Automatic annotation (TrEMBL):
Superkingdom field: Eukaryota
Reactions the enzyme catalyzes: a CDP-1,2-diacyl-sn-glycerol + a 1,2-diacyl-sn-glycero-3-phospho-(1'-sn-glycerol) = a cardiolipin + CMP + H(+)
Compartment list: Mitochondrion inner membrane
Organism: Tinamus guttatus
Membrane topology: Multi-pass membrane protein
Function: Catalyzes the synthesis of cardiolipin (CL) (diphosphatidylglycerol) by specifically transferring a phosphatidyl group from CDP-diacylglycerol to phosphatidylglycerol (PG). CL is a key phospholipid in mitochondrial membranes and plays important roles in maintaining the functional integrity and dynamics of mitochondria under both optimal and stress conditions.
Protein name: Cardiolipin synthase (CMP-forming)
Family per similarity comment: Belongs to the CDP-alcohol phosphatidyltransferase class-I family.
Length: 194
């Protein structure tokens, strides 16, 4: 049982809250402000990781799941909204969303399997009962998303370099999906509560 209200966890929740704001700004084609909100979300990501690594009382098993979840939500919203704004192809976004849905389903399954009896609804969704720690592989899509979001701001929407990034992102998406499948046991570490 651990305290869920650590500074890194609050920063991760703030990042989740910024996701719909960012999506709205992109769909409304307010790219300058959207780029600023994206940078702010990136700062919260850097800060929560820095604080969790340097202060032992701020590190938590919940944080190990909440941080990548906040990243997944932010990245998913970015992909969908950038696709709606015609800055990313639909096929690439579909591939990434499907991979993330499969990963989230796997996390829910691991949570169920690692929660000690009685497995009640309230215990399952109580973040204070830490049963597993997520150690995701990190093949970053942030450079691609930043480049796509900045494209209309800096006038390079039709650039061959941006299209090359689409291909690289498709390849890394397939690679990371394989990595999660193949190295799944290394990605999620079960916490022994003896």
């Amino acid at each position: 049982y651990e305290n869920p209200w650590t500074v890194p966890n609050v920063l991760s929740m703030a990042r989740m809250g910024l996701a719909p704001v960012l999506g709205y700004l992109i769909v409304e084609e307010n790219f300058n402000v959207a780029l600023g909100v994206f940078v702010l979300a990136g700062v919260t990501d850097l800060l929560d990781g820095f604080i969790a690594r340097n202060w032992a009382n701020q590190k938590s098993a919940l944080g190990s799941a909440l941080d990548p979840l906040a990243d997944k939500i932010l990245i998913s919203v970015l992909y969908v909204s950038l696709t709606c704004a015609n800055l990313i192809p639909v096929s690439l976004t579909s591939m990434i969303i499907l991979r993330d849905v499969a990963l989230i389903a796997a996390v829910f399954y691991v949570r169920y399997k690692t929660l000690s009896p009685p497995r009640t609804f309230s215990r399952y969704f109580n973040p204070c009962y830490a049963t597993a720690q997520l150690k995701p592989t990190f093949i970053s899509k942030l450079i691609f998303l930043a480049a796509s979001l900045a494209a209309p701001v800096f006038n390079y929407v039709d650039s061959i370099y941006l299209q090359t990034l689409w291909c690289i992102t498709a390849f890394t998406t397939i690679s990371s999906a394989y990595s999660y499948y193949h190295y799944g046991r290394k990605t999620v570490q079960v916490i022994n509560n003896k």
